Amino acid sequence: MTSWRDHLSETNRCLYCHEVFSGEVNWTWALGLSEEKLLCPACEGKLEEIKETGCDMCGRPVEQEGHEFVDSTVKRSASFVSKPQFLCRDCSRWGEEDRWKNHSLKHRALYSYNDFLQEVMATFKYRGDAEIATLFSGKLKKLAKSAGRIDVVTVIPLADDRLWERGFNQAELLAGAFRVRHLLVRTVSTEKQSKRDRRGRMAALEGAFRMSEEGERLELSGKRVLIVDDIYTTGSTLRSAASVMYEAGAVEVLAVTVARATGKLKK
Question: Which segments does the entry list as coiled coil (predicted)?
Answer without folding.
Answer: none
